[in-house]
Amino acid sequence: MPGYKGHLAGGAAVGGGALAAAVYFSYLPNDIWLLSALFAIAVMASLFPDTDTESKGQNFFYSIMAITDILLIVNHYYQWAAILGLFAMLPALGKHRGWTHTWWAMLLVPAPLIALPWIFFREEWTVTLPFYLAAVVGYFSHLLLDREF
Questions:
Q1: In degrees, to the nearest 5, what angle opens at C-alpha 144 toward C-alphas 142 and 147?
Q2: What angle do CA 68, 72, 76 make, to 5 degrees?
Q3: Per-residue b/e over 20-51, b at no fewer than 16 CB within 10 Å?
Q4: Is residue 112 a contact partner of residue 83, using CB atoms and an 8 Å limit?
Q5: Could you report the per-residue pLDDT of 86-130, keeping only the tens digit for each?
Q6: Where are the domains of the chain?
Q7: What is the pTM of this model?
Q8: Could you give the C-alpha distances from 112 to 18, 31, 37, 120, in angstroms and in order?
Q9: Residue 137's pLDDT band (cuts 50, 70, 90)
Q10: 3-class SS of residue 115
Q11: In whole angstroms, what is the distance from residue 100 CA to residue 55 CA?
Q12: 3-state SS class at 49
């Protein structure tokens, strides 16, 4: 099984390839900020399944989550900071290679990227769908490299 660097590379390759295809086939605009955000989500999602065990990948993932949480708090987005904190703790609810390494988790874990903007802001799901799909693609790359597919 690859380590965190392998999963980062896999997430970058699969996520980058999916984004390139989406731009090429005009599913996404060629917007550097949007594409950068989607790429970052895919790469971070590629690490999520291993956040249930002590590892360099876990340390990297939670460092990014902590920085993001601090930025949310500093900018007075307390509700989003609380939600991020809640979802970041979810992997602790199972054993390694448990629920985080399943196809249904790949589809369910990123679901808040669609659900929460709709719940809080009534944002159309079509606006947030690319963010959800980026997370699913990154998560998929992890499961693929771990031979779960």
A1: 110
A2: 170
A3: eebeeeeebeeeeeebeebbebbbbbbbbbbb
A4: yes
A5: 888 887 777 767 899 999 999 999 999 999 999 988 999 999 999
A6: 4-145
A7: 0.88
A8: 21, 23, 16, 11
A9: very high
A10: helix
A11: 15
A12: helix
